[in-house]
Amino acid sequence: MSKSGAWIWAFYIGMSSLLSLFLGLAIGFILFSENGGGLQFAQDPAPVETPAQSAGLETETPSTEIDPQRTENVQTPVSTANAQSTPVTLAAQLPPVNAAHHLFIAVNGQWLADGTREFLKELKPGGIMLRSGNVVSEQQTRSLIHDIKSTSGTGTLSSDLPLIAISQNASQDNLLQIPGTVSAVDIGSSNDMEKARSLGREYGSTAKAFGINIILGPLLDVYNPATAFPNLRTQSFGSDHTQVAALGLAMAEGIRAGGVIAVAKTFPGYAAAGYGSDGFSVIMNQEITGLAQAMYPFREAIRSQMEGIVVGHIAVPSFDKDFPTRSAALSPIMVTELLRS
């Protein structure tokens, strides 16, 4: 390209750049003028211009004062949003869950010592298990129960926590001091359903008079003479699993009729277990058929809507294979997968 041609191209490029610059300035000036000469930022909406007043047409300049009606309309969605968030606010204000409400504990003595009183105030347990050292008479027991409930701070009604439980049977734990009661083995020998129901009703009504909510009974253990502890013989309804289930459920029906809760014991059955090789642990070493018979009364209790079942410290290696010496009470296999399912 010649020198003169290069100058011509440079001239055209320069003129094009100047024209673009002037065109951009002109457009910017026009836009600036339309906005009234003020800078408008992205977050600020452009003001609405008021058209010029013409004949026969009234125009109204928007007022900067707040209209109460419009304010109410604007605030309504906010109010609704607040109402919808109320459950979250209430949930946040609820007191924390007290894990001790799921515990039954025992106390010593016929009255509350100062240390026990402070302990109950702090713990607030869900239940108290009365033992032989706690019960002397109806009046003394009622006084102790009233003291326990008032100390825990949840109320003194029978339904207020902590609930009060007691283990009651005629042969060994006649803590309610019911005269003339018969043992489970005697009821089993006669296979008298009405006698079992009547005795349960007497247990329940007497416990209610004492201020007690729960009887840990009936005992649903199926007695196995080959392995069981001898002292359990008189506490069991017998060695036939169907008879034990029928008599136990009849007694539970009577306990409920007496006005308290019946809780069957002791799954999977001490009367069908024995000591392990260590001479300390309690193990149920039966085959599947024997285990099924031992657990049959507890299955029937669940079917009858029994309010609760006490789980014993009995290892069942046939079911809990990975931990063959683990107590059933601590075994998710026995409690969650087998009993609750």
Q: What does the model show?
A:
The protein has helices at about 5-35, 70-85, 85-95, 115-125, 140-150, 185-190, 195-210, 240-255, 290-305, 330-340, and strands at about 105, 125-130, 165, 215-220, 260-265, 275, 280-285, 310. With about 350 residues, it is an alpha/beta fold. The chain has a domain at about 180-190 and about 220-260 and about 265-340: TIM Barrel, CATH 3.20.20. α7 (about 195-210) runs parallel beside α8 and α8 runs parallel beside α9. The longest helix has about 30 residues, at about 5-35.
Structural key phrases:
TIM Barrel, 341 residues, six-stranded parallel β-sheet, alpha/beta, globular, two-stranded antiparallel ribbon
| Regions with little confidence, pLDDT below 50 for 5+ residues | 29-45, 50-64, 70-81
The H-and-E topology, N to C, reads as: HHHEHEHEHHEHEEEHEH
CATH topology type of the domain at 181-192 and 220-259 and 267-339: TIM Barrel
Assigned CATH class of the domain at 181-192 and 220-259 and 267-339: Alpha Beta
Beta content: 5-15%
- Count of beta strands: 8
Structural class computed from helices and strand pairing:
alpha/beta
What is the average per-residue confidence, as pLDDT, rounded to a whole number? 81
Task: Please write out the topology.
Elements: H1 3-34, H2 68-84, H3 86-93, E1 104-106, H4 114-123, E2 127-130, H5 138-152, E3 163-167, H6 184-190, H7 193-210, E4 214-219, H8 241-257, E5 261-267, E6 274-275, E7 282-283, H9 288-303, E8 308-311, H10 332-339
Parallel strand pairs: 1-2, 2-3, 3-4, 4-5, 5-8
Antiparallel strand pairs: 6-7
Helix pairs in contact: 7-8, 8-9
